[in-house]
Amino acid sequence: RTATWIYGSTTEYSSMWVQLDLRGQPAGTATLSVEGMDSEDRAKTPISITVNGVEVFRGANPLPDDDQPLESGTWASYAWAFDAELLHPGQNEIRISNLAEGAFGRPPFFMLDYADLQLTTS
Question: Is 85 helix (H, G, I), strand (E, B) or coil?
Answer without folding.
Answer: helix
